[in-house]
Design goal:
By secondary structure, this protein is mainly alpha-helical. The protein has 6 helices and 2 strands.
Length: about 130
Amino acid sequence: MISYAKLWILLQKQGKKRFDLVEDGVIARGTLTKLGKNDSVTTDTISKICDYLDCQPGDIMERVTKEQVEETVKVMNQKFEEMFDMLSAATGKSREELLSEAAIQSQAILKKLQNGEQITLEDTIDPAE
C-alpha cells in the first residue's frame, strides 16, 4: 500500500496544514480525504502537490507493507498504554476519565478552530485543576 505520512510531515515542516492544499487550489476536498485514508490518487494529483511543495514524489509518499503498518500500530498502542499509565498515576484519574476529558476538550478546541479563533495553552488545560 502507499502511505502519505511523509506528505503530512513535509507540510508541517513547511509551516502548512493539510487543508492548505484545498484552500490554495492544489487539490479538491475529496482528494484530501483520499490522501488521508491512503487511497489511490492520480499521478496528476501527485504532480500538483509536488509542484506546490517543490519536492519529488518520494518526498510525499512511500510504499509500505502490511507488516510494517501492523508493527507501527503495535508500537503506537504500547506508547499510548505507557502514556495513559503515567497520566493516570499523575492525576489519579482512570483511563475512561482521561479519555472523556480529552474528548470534551477536543470538541471545544475544534469549535474554536471552526470559528477561526486562535487556540491558546489555556484551551488545553482543565480549568478545574
